[in-house]
Amino acid sequence: MFPIRDHNPSGRVPYVTYLLLVANIAIFFGTWSLHSDPAALRSHYIEFALIPALVSDGYGYSGFLTSIFLHGGLAHLGGNMLFLFIFGDNIEDEMGHLPFALFYLLCGAAAGLAHYLSGPGSPIPTVGASGAIAGVMAAYLLLFPKAKVDILVILVIIIRIIPIPAWILLILWFGMQLFGGIGTSPDQGGVAYWAHAGGFVIGLILTLPLWLRRGGPAFWRDTSGQPPHPEATYTLTRSNIPKVPRR
Question: pLDDT digit string (tens) for 211-233?
Answer without folding.
Answer: 999 998 888 888 877 776 667 66
